[in-house]
Amino acid sequence: MQTSSYVYWEKQGADNLCAVHCVNSLLQGPYYNGADLNSFARELDREEEALLGTKIADGESQNYDASGNYSIGVIEKCLKRFGELRCVNIMGAKTRSEVFSAPHLESGYVCNQSNHWFSLRRVGSGSPASQTWWNLDSLRLQAPAKISGPQELSSLIQSVVGQGYTVFVVRGDAPLPQPSKTANSSGMMTLSSNNGMKGMYLTEREAAELAARAKTAGTSIGGGSGAGDSNGGPNAFTMIAPSGVRNNEQPQKTDWSALGSGRSLGTSTGSSGPSPQPKNDDPELAAALAASLNDIAIPNPGDEPAAGPRVTTVQVRLPNGKRWTRRFSLDTNTLGDLFLWMEWQSLEDGKTTTAASGGQMPLLTSLAGYDVLKQGFGPFRRKFHRVPATQKVTVSGQAAEMECTQLGDAGFEAGQEAVILQL
């Protein structure tokens, strides 16, 4: 088997299965299809039913939907077939410090915003320094995009976070697989699946040629719709140059075709010397990320009610260890009030939390969905699943009217309530 000369690539078409392409690109082979991920999602639903002692309504799922979107738990289920691999949110203080001090030493990253997933992956043999990093975004790119060195990788990750993505680093007790292609096979291959996806094993030269052909044909490497064309697709990321390079310049849209040309982001010429190590205490980066949130509007939830016999104090424990606390009326406040406050609070925290503190979290409204686990016993233990920018919310698998369901009717009790936010 030849393993070091190729990168495995899947291009998203009209299938809306970016999570499948993300997993296969991360694992560097045609391992899964949509049916596989649906099966893993149902497994997770059954595990959550057993844990919570509740029943999810027929046709409903907490871990996937009809649009082809999946939870991070499904992604991890796929990875665990290859060892005890897990996805760790890089916004934790310790993880963030480790990642940005040496991002190239990790094996891969999973990036998610709303219903889009893609991966960044280190591929090749030998030491990490001799291997190549690739951006394998199946939606925005027409070919794998080579990432030139630790500085460019760090800048890309920072940009993705600044655009509202949640980024997970893949870690565990087993290495991620390398691409495995037989010596007598070449070019495009059709996967052994029923969903019509196609995958390719490409050399670095072939990846560059594929990108060049797509660009010549008028297909933007920085864009592309879910159907694979260049009309109306999402914009390229805005890259944030490292400290010392910016000089008050306006942020430039990424020229994806320049990735792999030997240039470091934020510079105009190549450099034969080693890339400087990124810092995780960049005040300009923190200011840039915070400024990007100023254009987002979430209504202020207003004053909280005074303490009283039908009032509860809700304490939310966050993934980064911090807590939010606010009082609510069991009779006049609804689930909508609770989620509006949480989403507003995540926006306010994002404006004031510095990157160096490691306390930043993804903006809740940028996620495809998030869960709130309410502590308690029996019927008072609930799992709320919220889909931002909609009125969709489920309570332990049952659909609920977010703006009409009072907190008292949703199982909250007077006094104090502790809930856990899961992303």
From TrEMBL:
Residues 257-274 have a biased composition (Low complexity). Keywords: Hydrolase, Nucleus, Protease, Thiol protease, Transcription, Transcription regulation, Ubl conjugation pathway. Residues 220-231 have a biased composition (Gly residues). It catalyses: Thiol-dependent hydrolysis of ester, thioester, amide, peptide and isopeptide bonds formed by the C-terminal Gly of ubiquitin (a 76-residue protein attached to proteins as an intracellular targeting signal). The active site is at 18, 116, 137. SUPFAM superfamilies: Ubiquitin-like (SSF54236). Residues 307-343 form the UBX domain. One of its GO terms (cellular component) is nucleus. Its EC number is 3.4.19.12. GO terms for biological process: protein deubiquitination; proteolysis. InterPro entries: Ataxin-3, Josephin, Ubiquitin-like_domsf, UBX_dom. Residues 218-283 are annotated as: Disordered. It comes from the Eukaryota. It holds the Pfam family UBX. Residues 5-185 form the Josephin domain. It is found in: Nucleus. GO terms for molecular function: cysteine-type deubiquitinase activity. Residues 245-255 have a biased composition (Polar residues). The keyword Transcription applies. This is ubiquitinyl hydrolase 1. It comes from Perkinsus marinus (strain ATCC 50983 / TXsc).
